[in-house]
Amino acid sequence: MTNVANVANTSSTTPPVVAMIGGGQLARMTHQAAIALGQTLRVLAVSPDDPAAQVTPDVVIGSHDNLDDLRRAADGATVVTFDHEHVPAELLDKLVAEGATVAPPPEALVHAQDKLVMRRRLDALGAPVPRYAGVERVDDVESFASRIGDAIVVKTARGGYDGRGVYLPRDLHEARSVAERLLAAGVRVLVEERVAMRRELSALAARSPFGQGAAWPVVETVQRDGICVVVIAPAPALPGDVGTEAELLALRIADELGVVGVLAVELFETHDGRLLVNELAMRPHNSGHWTMDGATTSQFEQHLRAVLDYPLGATTPTVPLTVMANVLGASELPAMAMDERLHHLFARMPDARVHLYGKGERPGRKVGHVNILGEGSPDDEEYAAKVRERAQLAAHWLSHAEWTDGWDIHG
Ligand SMILES: Nc1ncnc2c1ncn2[C@@H]1O[C@H](COP(=O)(O)OP(=O)(O)OP(=O)(O)O)[C@@H](O)[C@H]1O
Ligand SMILES: [Mg+2]
Fold first, then answer.
1. pLDDT for position 8
2. pTM of the predicted protein model
Protein backbone atom coordinates (compact mmCIF):
# COMPACT_ATOMS: atom_id res chain seq x y z
CA MET A 1 0.00 0.00 0.00
CA THR A 2 2.65 2.44 1.06
CA ASN A 3 4.75 1.35 -1.87
CA VAL A 4 2.02 1.95 -4.38
CA ALA A 5 1.33 5.39 -2.92
CA ASN A 6 5.02 6.17 -3.06
CA VAL A 7 5.32 5.08 -6.65
CA ALA A 8 2.30 7.15 -7.62
CA ASN A 9 3.68 10.06 -5.70
CA THR A 10 7.07 9.72 -7.35
CA SER A 11 5.77 9.63 -10.88
CA SER A 12 3.42 12.57 -10.43
CA THR A 13 6.22 14.72 -9.03
CA THR A 14 8.91 13.71 -11.49
CA PRO A 15 9.87 16.99 -13.10
CA PRO A 16 10.05 17.30 -16.86
CA VAL A 17 13.46 16.94 -18.49
CA VAL A 18 14.49 19.59 -20.96
CA ALA A 19 17.44 18.48 -23.08
CA MET A 20 19.56 21.23 -24.57
CA ILE A 21 21.85 20.62 -27.51
CA GLY A 22 25.14 22.38 -26.78
CA GLY A 23 26.88 22.92 -23.46
CA GLY A 24 27.85 26.59 -23.72
CA GLN A 25 27.02 29.52 -21.47
CA LEU A 26 23.43 29.71 -22.69
CA ALA A 27 22.83 26.14 -21.54
CA ARG A 28 24.65 26.90 -18.29
CA MET A 29 22.35 29.84 -17.54
CA THR A 30 19.29 27.86 -18.65
CA HIS A 31 20.24 25.20 -16.12
CA GLN A 32 20.41 27.94 -13.50
CA ALA A 33 16.81 28.83 -14.34
CA ALA A 34 15.81 25.14 -14.42
CA ILE A 35 17.00 24.72 -10.83
CA ALA A 36 14.47 27.29 -9.62
CA LEU A 37 11.71 25.31 -11.36
CA GLY A 38 12.77 22.11 -9.59
CA GLN A 39 14.33 20.75 -12.75
CA THR A 40 17.72 19.57 -13.94
CA LEU A 41 18.71 20.53 -17.46
CA ARG A 42 20.18 17.76 -19.58
CA VAL A 43 22.89 18.95 -21.94
CA LEU A 44 24.57 17.45 -24.95
CA ALA A 45 28.11 18.76 -24.51
CA VAL A 46 31.28 18.20 -26.47
CA SER A 47 33.38 17.93 -23.32
CA PRO A 48 32.84 17.65 -19.55
CA ASP A 49 34.59 21.04 -19.32
CA ASP A 50 31.89 22.83 -21.31
CA PRO A 51 30.25 25.64 -19.29
CA ALA A 52 26.96 23.78 -18.81
CA ALA A 53 28.53 20.33 -18.37
CA GLN A 54 30.38 21.70 -15.34
CA VAL A 55 27.15 22.49 -13.52
CA THR A 56 24.49 19.90 -14.37
CA PRO A 57 24.78 16.22 -13.45
CA ASP A 58 22.77 15.18 -16.51
CA VAL A 59 25.41 15.41 -19.23
CA VAL A 60 25.55 13.49 -22.48
CA ILE A 61 28.95 13.80 -24.11
CA GLY A 62 28.71 13.91 -27.85
CA SER A 63 28.33 16.03 -30.91
CA HIS A 64 25.41 18.04 -32.25
CA ASP A 65 25.95 16.56 -35.72
CA ASN A 66 25.92 12.91 -34.72
CA LEU A 67 22.50 11.27 -34.82
CA ASP A 68 23.26 8.69 -32.14
CA ASP A 69 24.50 11.37 -29.78
CA LEU A 70 21.36 13.40 -30.42
CA ARG A 71 19.25 10.29 -29.77
CA ARG A 72 20.99 9.73 -26.45
CA ALA A 73 20.30 13.33 -25.46
CA ALA A 74 16.64 13.09 -26.54
CA ASP A 75 16.02 9.71 -24.89
CA GLY A 76 13.33 10.16 -22.23
CA ALA A 77 13.46 13.96 -22.49
CA THR A 78 10.21 15.93 -22.43
CA VAL A 79 11.53 18.28 -25.09
CA VAL A 80 14.77 18.92 -26.97
CA THR A 81 15.96 22.50 -27.43
CA PHE A 82 19.12 24.39 -28.38
CA ASP A 83 22.05 26.39 -27.06
CA HIS A 84 23.15 27.06 -30.66
CA GLU A 85 21.56 26.66 -34.06
CA HIS A 86 24.10 24.47 -35.83
CA VAL A 87 22.27 21.12 -35.64
CA PRO A 88 21.66 19.79 -39.16
CA ALA A 89 17.95 19.91 -40.02
CA GLU A 90 17.90 16.38 -41.47
CA LEU A 91 19.03 14.98 -38.10
CA LEU A 92 16.33 16.92 -36.29
CA ASP A 93 13.75 15.65 -38.76
CA LYS A 94 14.83 12.10 -37.84
CA LEU A 95 14.47 12.84 -34.12
CA VAL A 96 11.00 14.22 -34.70
CA ALA A 97 10.04 11.19 -36.81
CA GLU A 98 11.19 8.99 -33.93
CA GLY A 99 8.82 10.78 -31.57
CA ALA A 100 10.95 13.47 -29.96
CA THR A 101 9.47 16.90 -29.30
CA VAL A 102 11.86 19.47 -30.73
CA ALA A 103 11.46 23.15 -29.84
CA PRO A 104 11.77 25.23 -31.88
CA PRO A 105 10.68 22.73 -34.54
CA PRO A 106 13.17 22.19 -37.40
CA GLU A 107 10.96 24.03 -39.91
CA ALA A 108 11.15 27.14 -37.73
CA LEU A 109 14.81 26.72 -36.77
CA VAL A 110 15.98 26.77 -40.38
CA HIS A 111 15.30 30.53 -40.38
CA ALA A 112 17.94 30.95 -37.70
CA GLN A 113 20.35 28.60 -39.47
CA ASP A 114 20.27 29.91 -42.98
CA LYS A 115 20.41 33.65 -43.66
CA LEU A 116 19.23 33.29 -47.25
CA VAL A 117 16.19 31.19 -46.31
CA MET A 118 15.47 33.73 -43.56
CA ARG A 119 15.75 36.77 -45.87
CA ARG A 120 13.41 35.21 -48.43
CA ARG A 121 10.82 34.21 -45.84
CA LEU A 122 10.81 37.56 -44.08
CA ASP A 123 10.58 39.31 -47.42
CA ALA A 124 7.55 37.18 -48.28
CA LEU A 125 5.97 38.08 -44.93
CA GLY A 126 6.44 41.75 -45.67
CA ALA A 127 8.92 42.21 -42.82
CA PRO A 128 11.47 44.96 -43.55
CA VAL A 129 14.90 43.55 -44.52
CA PRO A 130 18.02 45.07 -46.14
CA ARG A 131 18.18 44.64 -49.93
CA TYR A 132 19.91 41.33 -50.63
CA ALA A 133 20.63 38.74 -53.29
CA GLY A 134 21.73 35.12 -53.34
CA VAL A 135 25.13 34.64 -55.02
CA GLU A 136 25.41 31.67 -57.37
CA ARG A 137 28.30 33.04 -59.42
CA VAL A 138 30.83 35.78 -58.71
CA ASP A 139 29.14 37.96 -61.34
CA ASP A 140 26.03 38.10 -59.15
CA VAL A 141 28.01 40.30 -56.77
CA GLU A 142 28.67 42.73 -59.60
CA SER A 143 25.08 42.89 -60.81
CA PHE A 144 23.85 43.43 -57.23
CA ALA A 145 26.37 46.25 -56.74
CA SER A 146 25.35 47.83 -60.03
CA ARG A 147 21.79 48.06 -58.68
CA ILE A 148 22.45 49.27 -55.15
CA GLY A 149 26.03 50.63 -55.08
CA ASP A 150 29.38 49.45 -53.76
CA ALA A 151 28.55 49.58 -50.07
CA ILE A 152 27.79 45.89 -49.67
CA VAL A 153 28.24 43.07 -47.20
CA VAL A 154 29.13 39.53 -48.21
CA LYS A 155 27.81 36.80 -45.92
CA THR A 156 27.89 33.05 -45.72
CA ALA A 157 24.33 31.75 -45.56
CA ARG A 158 25.18 29.34 -42.76
CA GLY A 159 27.51 28.79 -39.87
CA GLY A 160 28.20 32.38 -38.82
CA TYR A 161 28.43 33.61 -35.26
CA ASP A 162 30.05 36.57 -33.56
CA GLY A 163 30.60 38.19 -36.94
CA ARG A 164 32.32 35.17 -38.50
CA GLY A 165 30.99 34.67 -41.96
CA VAL A 166 30.30 38.42 -42.34
CA TYR A 167 32.62 40.39 -44.64
CA LEU A 168 32.65 44.13 -45.11
CA PRO A 169 34.74 44.51 -48.29
CA ARG A 170 36.42 47.85 -49.05
CA ASP A 171 35.38 47.84 -52.69
CA LEU A 172 33.79 45.78 -55.40
CA HIS A 173 37.07 44.13 -56.28
CA GLU A 174 37.47 42.82 -52.74
CA ALA A 175 33.80 41.80 -52.59
CA ARG A 176 34.28 39.72 -55.70
CA SER A 177 37.35 37.98 -54.40
CA VAL A 178 35.71 37.19 -51.04
CA ALA A 179 32.70 35.72 -52.83
CA GLU A 180 34.95 33.80 -55.20
CA ARG A 181 36.89 32.24 -52.33
CA LEU A 182 33.71 31.25 -50.46
CA LEU A 183 32.02 29.82 -53.54
CA ALA A 184 35.15 27.82 -54.37
CA ALA A 185 34.99 26.36 -50.86
CA GLY A 186 31.45 25.19 -51.59
CA VAL A 187 29.84 27.69 -49.22
CA ARG A 188 26.45 29.31 -50.00
CA VAL A 189 26.77 33.07 -50.16
CA LEU A 190 24.55 36.15 -50.14
CA VAL A 191 25.20 39.86 -50.56
CA GLU A 192 23.38 42.66 -48.81
CA GLU A 193 23.35 46.40 -48.88
CA ARG A 194 25.60 47.80 -46.17
CA VAL A 195 23.01 49.56 -44.07
CA ALA A 196 23.95 53.03 -42.88
CA MET A 197 22.56 52.73 -39.41
CA ARG A 198 22.06 54.86 -36.39
CA ARG A 199 22.43 51.84 -34.12
CA GLU A 200 21.54 48.19 -33.67
CA LEU A 201 18.55 47.06 -31.66
CA SER A 202 17.21 43.71 -30.58
CA ALA A 203 13.60 42.68 -30.05
CA LEU A 204 13.34 39.65 -27.81
CA ALA A 205 10.16 37.64 -27.48
CA ALA A 206 9.01 34.16 -26.59
CA ARG A 207 6.25 31.96 -27.92
CA SER A 208 4.74 28.77 -26.51
CA PRO A 209 3.13 25.92 -28.49
CA PHE A 210 -0.22 27.05 -27.03
CA GLY A 211 0.38 30.25 -28.99
CA GLN A 212 1.02 32.60 -26.10
CA GLY A 213 3.55 35.32 -26.84
CA ALA A 214 5.47 37.74 -24.65
CA ALA A 215 7.98 40.42 -25.58
CA TRP A 216 10.55 42.29 -23.50
CA PRO A 217 11.21 45.96 -24.20
CA VAL A 218 13.46 46.54 -27.22
CA VAL A 219 17.13 47.02 -26.34
CA GLU A 220 20.11 48.70 -27.96
CA THR A 221 23.06 46.45 -28.76
CA VAL A 222 26.57 47.74 -29.32
CA GLN A 223 29.00 45.56 -31.30
CA ARG A 224 32.74 45.82 -31.71
CA ASP A 225 34.41 43.77 -34.46
CA GLY A 226 31.11 41.96 -35.03
CA ILE A 227 30.85 40.93 -31.36
CA CYS A 228 28.22 42.27 -28.99
CA VAL A 229 29.94 44.22 -26.21
CA VAL A 230 27.17 46.20 -24.52
CA VAL A 231 23.37 46.06 -24.27
CA ILE A 232 21.27 48.94 -22.98
CA ALA A 233 17.80 47.97 -21.81
CA PRO A 234 15.51 49.48 -22.81
CA ALA A 235 16.94 51.22 -25.89
CA PRO A 236 17.39 54.92 -24.95
CA ALA A 237 15.34 57.54 -26.76
CA LEU A 238 13.42 55.06 -28.86
CA PRO A 239 10.12 56.60 -29.92
CA GLY A 240 7.31 54.65 -28.25
CA ASP A 241 5.66 53.69 -31.52
CA VAL A 242 8.93 52.36 -32.95
CA GLY A 243 9.47 50.23 -29.85
CA THR A 244 5.95 48.87 -30.06
CA GLU A 245 6.36 48.21 -33.78
CA ALA A 246 9.52 46.17 -33.09
CA GLU A 247 7.88 44.16 -30.31
CA LEU A 248 4.89 43.39 -32.51
CA LEU A 249 7.23 42.45 -35.38
CA ALA A 250 9.05 39.94 -33.14
CA LEU A 251 5.76 38.45 -31.94
CA ARG A 252 4.45 38.23 -35.50
CA ILE A 253 7.62 36.56 -36.79
CA ALA A 254 7.49 34.08 -33.88
CA ASP A 255 3.90 33.29 -34.78
CA GLU A 256 4.31 33.07 -38.55
CA LEU A 257 7.39 30.85 -38.32
CA GLY A 258 5.96 28.68 -35.55
CA VAL A 259 8.79 29.45 -33.14
CA VAL A 260 8.70 27.72 -29.77
CA GLY A 261 10.98 29.26 -27.16
CA VAL A 262 12.84 32.54 -27.16
CA LEU A 263 13.26 34.43 -30.43
CA ALA A 264 15.73 37.28 -30.85
CA VAL A 265 15.16 39.61 -33.79
CA GLU A 266 18.35 41.57 -34.44
CA LEU A 267 17.46 44.94 -35.96
CA PHE A 268 19.14 47.89 -37.61
CA GLU A 269 17.72 51.34 -36.91
CA THR A 270 18.40 53.54 -39.92
CA HIS A 271 19.13 57.25 -39.66
CA ASP A 272 15.59 58.06 -40.73
CA GLY A 273 14.16 55.86 -37.97
CA ARG A 274 13.22 52.79 -40.01
CA LEU A 275 13.82 49.29 -38.69
CA LEU A 276 15.34 46.49 -40.77
CA VAL A 277 15.70 42.90 -39.62
CA ASN A 278 19.30 41.70 -39.58
CA GLU A 279 18.94 38.14 -38.37
CA LEU A 280 17.05 35.78 -36.10
CA ALA A 281 18.13 33.57 -33.22
CA MET A 282 15.82 30.95 -31.71
CA ARG A 283 17.28 30.47 -28.25
CA PRO A 284 18.30 32.71 -25.39
CA HIS A 285 20.43 35.47 -26.86
CA ASN A 286 23.23 37.76 -25.70
CA SER A 287 20.88 40.74 -26.08
CA GLY A 288 18.68 39.19 -23.36
CA HIS A 289 21.31 38.66 -20.65
CA TRP A 290 20.10 41.85 -18.94
CA THR A 291 16.83 40.05 -18.10
CA MET A 292 18.65 37.89 -15.52
CA ASP A 293 18.76 40.87 -13.18
CA GLY A 294 16.60 43.53 -14.82
CA ALA A 295 13.31 41.81 -15.68
CA THR A 296 10.61 39.94 -13.77
CA THR A 297 11.22 36.83 -15.88
CA SER A 298 14.65 36.09 -17.33
CA GLN A 299 14.99 34.91 -20.91
CA PHE A 300 16.34 31.58 -19.62
CA GLU A 301 13.31 30.81 -17.48
CA GLN A 302 11.06 32.06 -20.27
CA HIS A 303 12.72 29.71 -22.75
CA LEU A 304 12.03 26.79 -20.40
CA ARG A 305 8.44 27.89 -19.84
CA ALA A 306 7.88 28.22 -23.56
CA VAL A 307 9.35 24.87 -24.62
CA LEU A 308 7.41 23.15 -21.80
CA ASP A 309 4.23 24.98 -22.82
CA TYR A 310 3.83 26.61 -19.41
CA PRO A 311 2.16 30.01 -19.18
CA LEU A 312 4.80 32.64 -19.96
CA GLY A 313 6.20 34.96 -17.30
CA ALA A 314 5.89 38.73 -17.03
CA THR A 315 8.51 40.54 -19.08
CA THR A 316 8.29 43.79 -17.14
CA PRO A 317 11.61 45.41 -16.24
CA THR A 318 12.25 45.59 -12.49
CA VAL A 319 14.24 48.83 -12.82
CA PRO A 320 14.09 51.65 -15.38
CA LEU A 321 17.54 50.87 -16.86
CA THR A 322 19.84 47.86 -17.07
CA VAL A 323 23.19 47.88 -18.83
CA MET A 324 24.89 44.60 -19.68
CA ALA A 325 28.57 44.49 -20.63
CA ASN A 326 30.25 41.34 -21.91
CA VAL A 327 33.47 40.16 -20.34
CA LEU A 328 35.65 39.29 -23.34
CA GLY A 329 38.99 37.52 -23.01
CA ALA A 330 41.86 40.04 -23.17
CA SER A 331 44.47 39.82 -25.91
CA GLU A 332 47.02 39.18 -23.18
CA LEU A 333 45.90 37.13 -20.21
CA PRO A 334 46.36 39.23 -17.05
CA ALA A 335 48.64 37.86 -14.35
CA MET A 336 45.97 38.41 -11.69
CA ALA A 337 43.61 35.43 -11.28
CA MET A 338 39.91 35.90 -12.07
CA ASP A 339 39.07 35.20 -8.44
CA GLU A 340 41.16 38.14 -7.31
CA ARG A 341 39.74 40.37 -10.05
CA LEU A 342 36.27 39.50 -8.81
CA HIS A 343 37.30 40.35 -5.27
CA HIS A 344 38.49 43.80 -6.35
CA LEU A 345 35.41 44.41 -8.47
CA PHE A 346 33.08 43.66 -5.59
CA ALA A 347 35.11 45.95 -3.34
CA ARG A 348 34.57 48.83 -5.73
CA MET A 349 31.09 48.04 -7.07
CA PRO A 350 28.96 46.14 -4.58
CA ASP A 351 25.94 46.46 -6.87
CA ALA A 352 27.56 44.80 -9.90
CA ARG A 353 25.73 41.63 -10.94
CA VAL A 354 28.39 39.26 -12.27
CA HIS A 355 27.82 36.15 -14.35
CA LEU A 356 30.88 34.07 -15.23
CA TYR A 357 30.67 31.10 -17.55
CA GLY A 358 33.48 28.86 -16.30
CA LYS A 359 35.32 29.24 -19.61
CA GLY A 360 39.04 29.52 -20.20
CA GLU A 361 40.08 33.04 -21.21
CA ARG A 362 41.06 33.46 -24.84
CA PRO A 363 41.29 36.75 -26.77
CA GLY A 364 37.81 38.01 -27.67
CA ARG A 365 36.03 34.99 -26.17
CA LYS A 366 32.84 35.68 -24.20
CA VAL A 367 33.68 34.48 -20.69
CA GLY A 368 31.02 36.31 -18.70
CA HIS A 369 28.94 39.43 -18.38
CA VAL A 370 28.11 42.12 -15.86
CA ASN A 371 24.72 43.75 -15.33
CA ILE A 372 24.42 47.14 -13.70
CA LEU A 373 20.93 48.27 -12.71
CA GLY A 374 19.91 51.92 -12.75
CA GLU A 375 17.05 53.74 -11.08
CA GLY A 376 17.19 56.72 -13.46
CA SER A 377 15.69 57.09 -16.91
CA PRO A 378 17.44 55.58 -19.96
CA ASP A 379 16.42 58.74 -21.82
CA ASP A 380 18.49 60.89 -19.47
CA GLU A 381 21.61 60.83 -21.64
CA GLU A 382 24.09 61.76 -18.95
CA TYR A 383 22.68 59.26 -16.48
CA ALA A 384 22.52 56.43 -19.01
CA ALA A 385 26.11 57.15 -20.05
CA LYS A 386 27.22 56.87 -16.41
CA VAL A 387 25.56 53.51 -15.89
CA ARG A 388 27.01 52.29 -19.17
CA GLU A 389 30.45 53.48 -18.18
CA ARG A 390 30.25 51.60 -14.88
CA ALA A 391 29.19 48.39 -16.65
CA GLN A 392 32.04 48.73 -19.14
CA LEU A 393 34.56 49.59 -16.42
CA ALA A 394 33.53 46.45 -14.54
CA ALA A 395 33.65 44.19 -17.59
CA HIS A 396 37.00 45.60 -18.72
CA TRP A 397 38.38 45.15 -15.22
CA LEU A 398 37.29 41.50 -15.17
CA SER A 399 38.90 40.77 -18.51
CA HIS A 400 42.06 42.92 -18.25
CA ALA A 401 42.65 43.50 -14.52
CA GLU A 402 42.92 47.16 -15.40
CA TRP A 403 40.68 50.08 -14.46
CA THR A 404 40.37 52.26 -17.53
CA ASP A 405 39.55 55.30 -15.38
CA GLY A 406 42.81 55.05 -13.44
CA TRP A 407 41.18 53.86 -10.20
CA ASP A 408 43.87 52.81 -7.74
CA ILE A 409 42.95 49.43 -6.30
CA HIS A 410 44.93 50.06 -3.14
CA GLY A 411 43.99 53.72 -2.80
N1 LIG B 1 23.77 44.49 -44.06
C2 LIG B 1 24.56 44.97 -43.09
N3 LIG B 1 24.88 46.28 -43.07
C4 LIG B 1 25.70 46.78 -42.12
N5 LIG B 1 26.24 46.05 -41.12
C6 LIG B 1 25.97 44.74 -41.08
C7 LIG B 1 25.11 44.13 -42.06
N8 LIG B 1 25.01 42.82 -41.76
C9 LIG B 1 25.76 42.63 -40.66
N10 LIG B 1 26.34 43.76 -40.24
C11 LIG B 1 27.19 43.92 -39.03
O12 LIG B 1 27.83 42.69 -38.72
C13 LIG B 1 27.36 42.17 -37.46
C14 LIG B 1 27.27 40.65 -37.53
O15 LIG B 1 26.35 40.29 -38.56
P16 LIG B 1 25.35 39.07 -38.36
O17 LIG B 1 24.51 39.31 -37.18
O18 LIG B 1 24.66 38.80 -39.64
O19 LIG B 1 26.43 37.92 -38.14
P20 LIG B 1 26.58 36.72 -37.15
O21 LIG B 1 27.99 36.31 -37.21
O22 LIG B 1 25.56 35.73 -37.47
O23 LIG B 1 26.32 37.42 -35.79
P24 LIG B 1 25.97 36.92 -34.34
O25 LIG B 1 27.16 37.32 -33.52
O26 LIG B 1 24.78 37.75 -34.01
O27 LIG B 1 25.72 35.46 -34.38
C28 LIG B 1 26.03 42.87 -37.25
O29 LIG B 1 25.68 42.89 -35.89
C30 LIG B 1 26.32 44.25 -37.84
O31 LIG B 1 27.09 45.02 -36.93
MG1 LIG C 1 24.03 38.82 -35.42
1. 44
2. 0.95
| Residue closest to 400 by CA, chosen among 390, 388, 392 | 392
71 vs 5 pLDDT, higher one: 71
Q: Among 152, 222, 276, 278, which is best to mutate for testing ligand 1, by the most ligand atoms less than 8 A from CB?
A: 278
Confidence check: pLDDT of 6 > 50: no
d(CA 67, CA 87): 10
**Closest ligand 1 atom, CA of 115?**
18
Q: What CA–CA distance (Å, rounded) separates 184 from 279? A: 25
* Dist. CA 264–CA 284, nearest whole Å: 8
374: β partners: 321
Ligand 1 atom 19: residue of nearest CA: 163
State the DSSP H helix or E strand holding residue 389, giving kind and residue range, or none if neither. Answer: helix 381-400
Task: Show the CA angle centred on residue 300, arms to residues 294 and 304, nearest 5°.
Answer: 140
